[in-house]
Amino acid sequence: MPDPVDLFPGFASRTVSTEGARIFARVGGEGPPLLLVHGFPETSAQWHRIAPKLAERFTVVVPDLRGYGWSSAPASRDGDGYTKRAMGADLVALMDDLGFARFRFVGHDRGARVGYRLALDQPGRIERLALLDIVPTVDVWRSREADPDVSPHWPWLARPAPEPERAIGADPISYFEGLLAKWSGAKDLSPFAPDALALYRASWNEPSRIHAMCEDYRAGAAQDVDADRADEAAGRTIACPVLVVASRHYLVKAGKPAPVEVWRSRLAPDARGVETDTGHFMAEEDPDATLAALTAFL
């Protein structure tokens, strides 16, 4: 397996103990602190094409979420250990350890869900929030009520253990590579660097991490959506500036409201939006466009 620093020249490795987990991160650059948080089913390696450029202007911190990559995979049942609130607390502990009380946050997919939950729970922590290719968790489930074919992996991964774990564990590489290909604009693995794929495969092959990813989705079906509903009922919204980056070949749907409009109607009334001509994995599929969108905002 490649050394974890190979894809991030000049970055140092750091491991920090949090409440219930050990979080691995890469740190590089100088300037205001910027947190880059990956999504499912990848690891922090997904940022390798843009993190070095961002490090020219920022102190860039690139962690693996608990249960992913090089971070620990705490035991969990019914999603309790993998709520976005718990994952957000990990990242606060990491940034506190590095000396950063406030920071900019860029999150993709599950990482974006951690970011907006943290922005709602601890509004003083995040200065600017970029959400890559998601709508609020509560809206995913509302969309499924109208159309059960929307995001079928959400309810399947959230099924009680060990059903999805056993099914995925029979051939995890094929399962997760199938998702990468399906959700990319190219519909194959061509957007992904071989060294990054090697790191993803190493994580996918570990049963405790397969369980952790399922627990992540179990939390999304219960605790996370409940937190969204509570915020809606209380009228809470995200206080910091928000950028919504949406992919034209994955998240944007004909005849449906633009993702930024969904955010404006729910939890981020002042959000601004931009689209990329990519599939779901925009930081790897078109790093130049993704970098341009982020630097203009950050």
UniProtKB/TrEMBL annotation:
Q: Where is the AB hydrolase-1 domain?
A: 32-249
Fetch the Pfam families from UniProt.
Abhydrolase_1
Q: Which SUPFAM superfamilies match?
A: alpha/beta-Hydrolases
Q: What highest taxon heads this organism's lineage?
A: Bacteria
| Keywords for the protein's UniProt record, in alphabetical order | Hydrolase
Q: Which InterPro entries match?
A: AB_hydrolase_1 (IPR000073), AB_hydrolase_fold (IPR029058), Epox_hydrolase-like (IPR000639)
Q: Which GO terms describe its molecular function?
A: hydrolase activity
Write the protein's name: Alpha/beta hydrolase
Originating species: Lichenibacterium minor
